[in-house]
Amino acid sequence: SVHTRDQVELPPPAIDNRLTVHPLWPEIDRISTEQIQAAFEGVGGEIGWQLFAEEGDMRMYRREMEVDGMVTDPLKAMHKVRGVTAREMCHYFFNPRYRYEWETTLETMTIVEEISSDALVFHQTFKRIWPASQRDALFWSHVRQSTDNTYAVTNHSTTNVEYPANTSACIRLFVTVCLACRSSWPAGAAPTRDNITTSIAYCSTVNPGGWAPAGVLRAVYKREYPKFLKRFTNYVVEQCRDKPIAI
Length: 247
Ligand code: 16C
What we know:
It is built from 5 helices and 12 strands. The chain is of the alpha+beta class. It has a single domain (about 5-240), classed as 2-Layer Sandwich (Alpha-D-Glucose-1,6-Bisphosphate, Chain A, domain 4), CATH 3.30.530.
C-alpha cells in the first residue's frame, strides 16, 4: 500500500561494504567528508557570502567567482523544514526513482553504475538555456550518515570512457553539490512529525565547462536555486505526510 516503505531503501546508517572496495572510494570518502564539514560552517566570517534570496526560513548566499572568464559562483543555502527527518530528506534527494518528480532542470537521467546501496554514478542532460549550448554532467552520488541525526548526500563530477565529454550536442559541466541535513526535537521527547525540525545546508558549485553569458547564467541560477529548494522540500513533506517517521 502507499503507507508502507521498504526500510532497506532508506539511506543505510553505516557505509556499504561494496563501496569501500570500489576504486572511487578514497575520492568519494574524502570529498564527502570535506563537503559535509563545509556545509555546516556558517556564512559569517571572512569569505564574504552575499545574501541573494530569502523566503520564510530559507536563505541563499553566493560568492561571485570567475574561472577563465566563466562564472562559477559558489552557492550556499540554509533552510529549516518541519515534519520530516534528515534521513528522509536525503532518501528523496539520493534515490533516482523520485528525481523527475522534483528536479525541473532535467532532460534525461541515466544510471551509469550502481556501486552500492549508498553510491551511484549518474549521467544527466539538462534543459538548454538560450543562447548557450545544452549541458550534460557525469557524477557520482553518495549518501551517508555523518553524526547522530545527520545525513548528507554529496554529488561530484567524475569521468567514464563510455560517456566522453563534449562529443555530441552537449558541453560537459562540472558539479560539486552537498545536501546536508540535521534533525532535532525537544529533549526528553520522542521524535514525531509534529515536533521534529530538520536544518538543511545545500552547497553547490557548478562550472559551466564552456562559454555561457555571465548575465544570463546568474539570472538563471537566482531563479532556479530557490525554485529547486522550495519544490524539493515541499515534495519531501508531501511524500512523508502519512508515512511512519524514519529516524
Ligand atoms: O542538486 C540538484 N540536483 C541534483 C540532482 O539532479 C544534482 C544536480 C546537479 C546539476 C546542477 C547543474 C544544473 C545545471 C542546469 C542547467 C540548465 C538549467 C535549465 C533551467 C531552466 C529551464 O546535484 C538541484 C540542482 C538545482 C539547479 C539549479 C540551477 C543552477 C543553474 C546553475 C548554472 C548552470 C550553468 C549552465 C550553463 C549554460
